[in-house]
Amino acid sequence: MTREEIITTTKRFLSEEFEVNKDKITANNNLQKTLDLDSLDYVDLVVVIEENLNFKPTSDDFKKIETFNDFYDLVEQKLS
Amino acid sequence: MDRRVVITGIGLYSSIGNGKKEVLDSLRKGKSGIVYDKAREEIGYRSCLTGMVEDPDLKPYLSRRERIGMHQPAMFAYMSTMEAMEQAKLDIDFLKKNETGIIYGNDSTAGAVINTIDKLRDRGDTTLIGSGDIFQNMNCTVNMSLSTIYKLKGINITLSAACASGSHSIGMGYLLIKQGLQERVVCGGAQEINVYSMASFDGLGAFSIGHDAPTKASRPFDKNRDGLIPSGGAATLIIESLESAEKRGAPILGEILGYGFSSNGDHISNPNFDGQYRSLKMSLEQAGVSAKSIDYVNAHATSTPVGDSMEAQAIHSILGSDVPVSSTKSMTGHECWMAGASEVAYSILMMQNDFIAPNINFKNPDEDSKKINVIPEFKEKKIDTFLSNSFGFGGTNSSLIVKKFVK
After folding, report:
1. Are residues B181 and B133 located together in one domain of the fold?
2. Do B129 and B24 lie in a common domain?
3. Does B163 participate in catalysis according to the annotation?
4. CB B68 to CB A50 under 8 A?
5. Nearest CA distance, B129 vs chain A (angstrom)
6. How far apart are CA B91 and CA B9, in angstroms?
7. Contact in structure between B11 and B83 (CB atoms under 8 Å)
8. Do B261 and B387 fall within a single domain?
9. ipTM at complex level
10. Residue B21, Cβ neighbours under 10 Å: how many?
11. How far is it, in rounded angstroms, from Cα A6 to Cα A1?
């Protein structure tokens, strides 16, 4: 999956799951704030990532993520 | 402290109507909400009849977080509560600042639990179930959802008492307000309506198999009945102290006069005369009214021979032969955990509009029902005081007496 495909795919499922406008999901925006995630929402974030990208991020993975760019990096790394 | 307790809002999400207006029309016309459900046939039900309500779309009203913890009981209860809150002139800003409780009747979340376990079997990993299921799976799902959505700060408990859950919820709320422990309480009952919820009950052979004419199959008190028909939805009643209602300028729909209750201490499913008799008697004593002052009885009668007969005997023994009686389950089917609350709400609509809703499909009385005055057709009648019975598995009984409000 290319970086562009990762961005398109994640925008789609994150905006659907967390009911956020796709336009707000930009590379430098903060993931937690943009998706308005509380501790329970991270459980659902794991579920949609596994469903759409076939891997399960760990809590350590999430600690490294601030922006969507960080998230795309993680996905690239996991899928490589 | 001994305060007067009044009803200031009712809301209904029922097989005979979404909201009071539709329900009132159905009650007047004797319109049945019973349908043949193909899904029940496909999964192996003996009886494929049920009252039916649709799953409401709550996206226009609630956030994702508020919605994902809700399955049918909570979804239905939100619909009825939204209507009741509006009538009672209550909103979230007021509820945040003024302590209000919730005692809601619910006794199962079968559909939600099975959906969760299906997900687990499919994914093989509990961490892939998602965050909403736990709140859908618990019996207090209605309370958890409504208390957090409406920011309720008072008593917060779920009442599980089988088919008397909704009635006891009103009774318990009434006692707390009467004693001065709460100003207002959101009461009600919710009943899920999916194929998982009633499968084991269907297996007992207690449901009607009148598949050829679904709307004629629920026949409480009729000699030729062949069983009950399950149903569902939700009913909410806002009850509060008279002082609070008057201070807020809320509409007063009726006053709760008495609550009687008992336990049979007998068989797990068979009703008994003594328990019902004691519940009825206690409600009259608590209300401080005579049998003659009851203008209408909304019977529990579900359309099963033993249950209907016991109740007819109890009504006859306590209230005599003349008081008009009808079972709205003839139209709605048995709304189970919801029934005790919805039937008080149906009766309030009758009281406000001076009529008795018919016990449809009542053609031929049996030995016991011929002793009481079952009303088979719409009847104009001024109702000042009514009594509503609810009886449940395990022998839990509840009787409520409500009166038209007089200052």
Report:
1. yes
2. yes
3. yes
4. no
5. 7
6. 12
7. yes
8. yes
9. 0.94
10. 11
11. 6
Catalytic residue among B168, B300, B316, B336: B300
Task: Judge whether B336 counts as a catalytic residue.
Answer: no
Residues of chain B in contact with residue A35, where contact means CB-CB under 8 angstroms, are: none
Same domain, B300 and B211: no
- Contact across the interface for B127 and A43, Cβ inside 8 Å: yes
For the CA atoms of B298, B214, B107, B180, the dihedral, rounded to the nearest 10 degrees, stands at: -20
Domain boundary among B201, B223, B248: B248
Domain A3-79 in CATH 1.10.1200.10: yes
B334 is catalytic: yes
- Residues of chain B neighbouring A59 (CB-CB closer than 8 A): none
Contact B130 A38 (CB under 8 A): no
A21–B contact, CB cutoff 8 A: no
Alpha-carbon gap, residue B31 to B360, rounded angstroms? 8
Nearest residue in A to B65, CA atom: A41
Q: What is the pLDDT along chain B (407 residues), one digit of tens a residue?
A: 789 999 999 999 999 999 999 999 999 999 999 999 999 999 999 999 999 999 999 999 999 999 999 999 999 999 999 999 999 999 999 999 999 999 999 999 999 999 999 999 999 999 999 999 999 999 999 999 999 999 999 999 999 999 999 999 999 999 999 999 999 999 999 999 999 999 999 999 999 999 999 999 999 999 999 999 999 999 999 999 999 999 999 999 999 999 999 999 999 999 999 999 999 999 999 999 999 999 999 999 999 999 999 999 999 999 999 999 999 999 999 999 999 999 999 999 999 999 999 999 999 999 999 999 999 999 999 999 999 999 999 999 999 999 999 99
Apex CA B230: angle with CA B229 and CA B232, to 5°? 140
Domain containing residue B189: 5-248
Interatomic CA distance for residues B228 and B207, integer angstroms: 5
Q: Which of A13, A19, A37 to mutate to test the interface with B (most CBs of B within 10 A)?
A: A19
User: In terms of Cα–Cα distance, which of B287, B234, B237 is closest to B90?
Assistant: B237
Three-state secondary structure call for residue B304: coil
CATH code for the domain in which residue B196 is found: 3.40.47.10
Q: Does B126 touch chain A (CB under 8 A)?
A: no
